[in-house]
Amino acid sequence: MNLTGIVLAGGKSSRFGFNKLKIKVDTVPLFIDQIFKLSFFCDEIIISTSKSHYPIVSSELNKIRIYQKKYNFDKIKVSNIKKYLKTNFKNFPEKVSTYPNIKTNIRIILDESDVDNLNTSNSLNITNSEKITPSHKGKGPVIGIYTSLANASYFYSIIVAFDMPFISYNLLKSLVYESGINTEEPSSSEPATISYNYSKKRDAYIIKTEKGFEVLCGLYSKNCLGILKEDIGKQKYKISDIFNYLDIEVISINKLKQNGIDNLNFFNINRLEDYYKFKNLWQNKKPLLNTGISFIETWADFFFR
Fold first, then answer.
1. Taking a C-beta distance cutoff of 8 angstroms, is the pair 126, 106 a contact?
2. What is the CA radius of gyration of the chain?
């Protein structure tokens, strides 16, 4: 599928007493979990992070094959998966064990310029971002969005913050379909393929809820690079400011509701109380699904809701 998935993982965790990158879904780090979710649609994954976070990101990515064993769909009844996906895929039993497809190219993009002395020995790719002057460091996710889009292999990228633990399959699918990127039904166990309807092509597809634009969960194209670079040069770091200069399509809350997409998709862990709420939501799901439930069954119930 000709899409890049970008996970923004460069925040400072200033409201926590610990690094948010250490938060886990069961035993899987949140940013690793986002990789598996994006891999349903994306051929390439970029982790945008900072020099200070690089050791954690690198170390956990080196264990991704271990984490992959947690996402074993063989433990879920095929009838339940069909219910989750609500799709008419052919040869569905064969597909169950193939998802999520971690055959993608996973890269780390550093959103800082002072990486000359960083030890980047790693089994995964690491790419130095375009040079961002020190005065722009720590100015929020706009730097990570710009540098990741600049290094993305594909025209469109799904961008998500790593600390949004309840992003669903339906939300990601809606971003893909709203953009005019058509998923073709597979005729075998191979993943679905994506083609572009360029007559509908927009610069970005942005979700807007009652709270405003969800700028850290959307579909951005490389057409955004020019205005992003210009705003960064002017030390303007509010992401939504670029929308006035782009051809964007706003996905409204009503449209989301029509597609069965709930507000839990946009829950993010900004404060310590959010972290405890996340833990409670995850733990409370297990008794509802019956005792002795496996990780993948709980995960699937959230992701495919």
1. no
2. 19
Answer whether 0.90 is exceeded by the pTM.
no
Distance CA 249, CA 186 (A): 28
The tokens 């460069």 sit on which residue? Answer: 10
pLDDT per residue as tens, the chain (305 positions): 689 999 999 877 667 777 899 999 999 999 999 999 999 889 899 999 999 999 999 999 999 989 988 887 766 655 555 555 554 434 333 333 344 555 558 999 998 643 333 333 333 454 544 444 444 555 789 999 999 999 999 999 999 999 999 999 999 999 988 777 654 433 333 444 444 444 458 999 999 999 999 999 999 999 999 999 999 999 999 999 999 999 999 999 899 998 899 999 999 999 999 999 999 999 888 666 555 567 888 898 899 98
Instruction: Among 3.90.550.10, 3.30.200.20, 3.30.70.260, 3.40.630.10, name the CATH number for the domain at 4-303.
Output: 3.90.550.10
- Per-domain residue ranges of the chain: 4-303
